[in-house]
Amino acid sequence: MKNLLFSLLVAGLLFQACDFQKAASREEALKQSAEKKKADDQRAERFKKYFAAFEKLNQKPFCEQGLEQVQEIFGNPEGRVLVAAHRGDHMEKPENSLPSFEHSVNYGTDIIELDIRNSKDDSLMVIHDGTVNRTTNGEGKVAEMNYEQLRALKLIDEFTGKDTDLQIPTLYESLKAMKGKIMIDLDIKCDNIEAIHAMVAALEMFDQCLFFCDEADMDYVLGRAPEALVMPRARSMESLEHLMEKYNPAIIHIDDSNFEVSEAVLYIKSMRADCRVWANALGKYDRAAIEGDDEGIHRLMEQGIDVVQTDLPRYVQYLVCSEAL
């Protein structure tokens, strides 16, 4: 009898535990659903403000257009500020997609930035995240999927949240499509610099591409192609001095959160007058611009930043070109 009572007690406790687990799972699912809805609502509101407020987007760009003109400005210490489209013009086309790059070209953006990752079978794919979850209709890690698996996925339209007919592009087709059209920042997020260097060399695009990578990768590229354009990133004054002395680069990336920007720019220009200084408007400055406040973007330019990377390329291009008149 005692054993029977004990068994019934244990069974009751187990059922109760199961009920608690189910309730916790339901609560977690509801929480995730609410968070997703909040994120979707915020995204929809952001896009609504973007398209409603930026009537300037319909204006024609005033700046010089075309790769040759931009390359000339790039090497001119008196040249105007250049605008880089972060992952292409992804406010209007899916990020890191061929249409986002083409859109940037068509609307006079100076530079596009794209991200490179390696697949399981060493295919060079253009995608920012380490997983496909956010930007495609699939799930999984890029490095654990082969070329065919990655190409079977469809990119998501961030504005609508719906699938598109677009695939994750390869680095080769992205470079091929942009050859002779626009400068390209290669944000290298994988350990395959040999293949990336070989591809740029085969397409004869060293004058068009910026290699944004670590020192070991920059050393590899410059050791084989001294004419290549590398873009180091300095995160402190000490690293800035080291990178300028080691590479004497044509362009260097700094973050305004790590520097007194005006002082950093003054030092950079004293080392090389025609060195371009790249900084990001994406994030807080872009968000403020959507709300109608351009002060942060203007401040970067006033402090001497002469390449501005942004998620709002058409808008920032308009600001830059209007002021260049």
From TrEMBL:
GO terms for cellular component: plasma membrane. PROSITE patterns: GP_PDE (PS51704), PROKAR_LIPOPROTEIN (PS51257). GO terms for molecular function: glycerophosphodiester phosphodiesterase activity. GO terms for biological process: ethanolamine metabolic process; N-acylethanolamine metabolic process; phospholipid metabolic process. InterPro entries: GP_PDE_dom, PLC-like_Pdiesterase_TIM-brl. Residues 81-320 form the GP-PDE domain. It comes from the Bacteria. This is GP-PDE domain-containing protein. It comes from Persicobacter diffluens.
